[in-house]
């Protein structure tokens, strides 16, 4: 099946994958955009696992101030190079995660930070506690079908660098 350049361009814009990879996947999926995106997403997750061990010492701080200026979230989002850290897309991701912090108020970044004592004090099951309190396990507020962890893995695949949430803070007036 002949794949049009417009279809390749659309897949590239939607996923950030290389032109040849987009063309090859579209040929493999016989032009099915959704299947092609899913395959690229799976490959991105595999690539993200390989990049997760690389140092991420650059980046920026994303900030979201909620309407009325009574709640603010800040997130330190790190990457490997200042080139990626200065891109508009990386900045948008940092700000989106800061907005998520304001909306869902996580207490921990990763599951391994959760203590048995915290779970016991909450009176919840560990699974429910993790879902409600661990940033990486929470459904992304702007796209609930994916977790923050999945969102970061997609960013790693797209940027070609390790991307890490180093820390976050949420301030609320009167809290």
UniProtKB/TrEMBL annotation:
Cross-referenced SUPFAM superfamilies: Elongation factor Ts (EF-Ts), dimerisation domain, UBA-like
Protein name from the UniProt record: Elongation factor Ts
Translation elongation factor EFTs/EF1B dimerisation domain segment(s): 30-121, 127-174
An example molecular function term from Gene Ontology annotations: translation elongation factor activity
Keywords: Cytoplasm, Elongation factor, Protein biosynthesis
Function: Associates with the EF-Tu.GDP complex and induces the exchange of GDP to GTP. It remains bound to the aminoacyl-tRNA.EF-Tu.GTP complex up to the GTP hydrolysis stage on the ribosome.
Protein origin, superkingdom: Bacteria
InterPro entries assigned to the protein according to its UniProt record, in alphabetical order: EF-Ts_dimer_sf (IPR036402), Transl_elong_EFTs/EF1B (IPR001816), Transl_elong_EFTs/EF1B_dimer (IPR014039), UBA-like_sf (IPR009060)
């Amino acid at each position: 099946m002949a794949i049009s350049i417009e279809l390749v361009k659309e897949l590239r814009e939607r996923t950030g994958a290389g032109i040849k990879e987009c063309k090859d996947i579209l040929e493999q999926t016989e032009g099915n955009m959704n299947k092609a995106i899913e395959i690229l997403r799976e490959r991105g997750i595999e690539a993200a696992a390989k990049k997760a061990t690389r140092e991420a010492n650059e980046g920026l701080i994303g900030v979201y101030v909620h309407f009325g200026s009574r709640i603010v979230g800040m997130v330190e989002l790190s990457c490997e190079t200042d080139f990626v850290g200065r891109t508009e897309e990386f900045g948008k991701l940092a700000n989106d995660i800061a907005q998520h912090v304001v909306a869902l108020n996580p207490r921990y970044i990763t599951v391994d930070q959760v203590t048995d004592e915290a779970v016991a004090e909450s009176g919840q099951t560990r699974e429910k506690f993790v879902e409600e309190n661990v940033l990486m396990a929470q459904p992304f507020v702007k796209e609930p079908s994916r977790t923050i962890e999945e969102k970061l893995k997609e960013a790693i695949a797209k940027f070609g660098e390790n991307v890490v949430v180093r820390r976050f803070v949420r301030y609320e007036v009167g809290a």
